[in-house]
Each structure stands twice: as C-alpha cells, then as structure tokens.
UniProtKB/TrEMBL annotation:
InterPro entries: Redoxin, Thioredoxin-like_sf, Thioredoxin_CS, Thioredoxin_domain, Thioredoxin_ResA/DsbE_sf. One of its GO terms (biological process) is cytochrome complex assembly. Coiled coil: none annotated. It comes from Thioclava atlantica. This is Thiol:disulfide interchange protein. The lineage of its organism: Bacteria, Pseudomonadati, Pseudomonadota, Alphaproteobacteria, Rhodobacterales. It comes from the Bacteria.
Amino acid sequence: MLRFLVLYTALALGANVAQAADLTAVKEGQMEPLVTYEKPLPVQPFVFTDEEGAEHSLKDYEGKVVLLNFWATWCPPCREEMPSLNALQSELGGDDFQVVTIATGGANSPRKIASFFDKEGIDALPRFHDDTNMAARAMGVLGLPVSVLIDRDGNEVGRMIGGAEWDTPEAKTVIETLIKD
C-alpha cells in the first residue's frame, strides 16, 4: 500500500509539472508574452463589487478556469481588448470557463462601465469594479491591462501584462488546454 501511495504521489506531482509544460508548449503568436509558471501560484483572497453594490470573489467561480482581467475605462489598451474578451466569453464561457473583468480604481464608476459596455456592445462580460484597488493590489497588478489565468483549483497559472487579442486561435488554444486539463 505504501508503494502505491508513493507512486501515486510521484505521478500526481509529475502531472502538475506537465500541465505547466503543456501551457508553455501551446503559447504561440500573440500568446508568446504570456508568463507561465513551473508551479501554479496561490491567489490571495479579495473582493470586488457588481453594479448593484454586491460583493463577489473568485470563490464564485470555483471549479472553473478563469481569465481575470484588470482594466480601466480611461485606459486605451484596456478598451481596445475588451471586444475580444467579450467574444472569448461568448464562445467559450460556460460551466468550465469564465472571463471576469474588474475595472480598478475610483475613476471607474458603474455608470462609466455601463456606458462603455453599452456603447461597444459588450454584452457577455460581468460589470465588476474595484474602487479601492484592493483586488488589483492583492494580485500584484502595477499597470493596466493585466489578465491572469486561474486554474480550476484557484491558482494562478499565467499572466499577460498588456493588451491582447483574446479571441484569436492562439489564445483559444491556451484557454482550451487549461479547460481540458
């Protein structure tokens, strides 16, 4: 029995390393700048708010792969990537995957977020905000936009600093690799 447990533990540890290697192997094109880790990083708990003022956290998405995007209404690269995040959520979102967008900083009122989303036809993404920047600080976000890939276990497995086209075949391959794992 002890031999079985040792073998099982060794195989499980090897599977975790293989997951990181698989993500690295599928990064192509615009996804090449995606930083991935040999071992997933734990995510500190934090809260963010919806347009009605209710608090949410990543626990709301337990068991799903999450693409967590920090953005601002005043940030041109953030605004530019939002339609591709919307398209990604429309295509892949569901029981296994969710794009979570959080407008960070006090200049991102629910009214400004709603106005931008409505004007741009952003209809598949949640309208979350973080007026105090606490969520961004908890995630070590220093500039915008930043997108963080979180695995089903709630750990960070990748990070894109700067804007990206998230509805490209290369981006979908990265997301689908995480979903299948």
